[in-house]
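1st attempt posting a full record on here, be nice pls
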Amino acid sequence: MADHAHNLRARSWTTDGPVGVPTRGTTGHNRLRKSDRWLVAQHRVQTHMRDVQLSGRRPVAIDVGYGASHTTTVEWARFLRVLAPDVEVTGLEIEPSRVLPPRDGVNFALGGFELAGMRADVVRAFNVLRQYDVDQVRDAWERMQTGLHDGGVIIEGTCCEVGRRAAWVLLDKHGPQTLTMSWHPGDVEKPSDIAERLPKALIHHNSPGHAVYDVLQEMDAAWNQAAPLAVFGPRVRWREALNHFHQATQLPRLTPRRRLSDNTLTVPWSAVSDDH
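the predicted structure (as tokens):
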């Protein structure tokens, strides 16, 4: 991949620039539904959005790099309105030709990782950094982090073209907090198949000697232990595999215990990061 580092510092239409480079922009209906459902179910997000409303301020959500279509930004706004009906949602694109007039209660503007100078309570950047070089990820995270309100979060990740496999990082002002991997139960033969959709910060670490590789191997081992339940389907088998996984790793159980339509695992960032 070409080096885009100069673009992260480039000045453009404003004093500071939009920060980033145009990406392929592919998108589709319901492509990001897994991460959207997960985000609005998080207690810290629910609490923050409620506190913002009680303070008398409208919550602000920014979708960075929505691509060639407004579809997923509008879908995201519908999810967020369940938590905060008056949430102000803005989609940002660094490619001027993709910037749209307001529609479906969503604003659109020219901007990138600098968030067009706005402050946000929730930021989403999906399938954007996957197209950058890995050594640019931290710079992009930091640029978005500086635009967060206290208590705000960023969800950054990647998914397949139809959204059946996805993985994302949740960040706050202090840095990455968790990694979540989610897949349609019938779409993989083994849990580690999700590795192809790891966020850019981790995707090159799926090899022996790296923490995320060890987690993926433990996921497969737990899946194998749950093989006797395969006759009941991959959802039931994964619920049992989760029990084996947490017994083996002693990691805190961050994945909800309730039944989910997707197979999902959330782990602390410290479990998959090599920075110790």
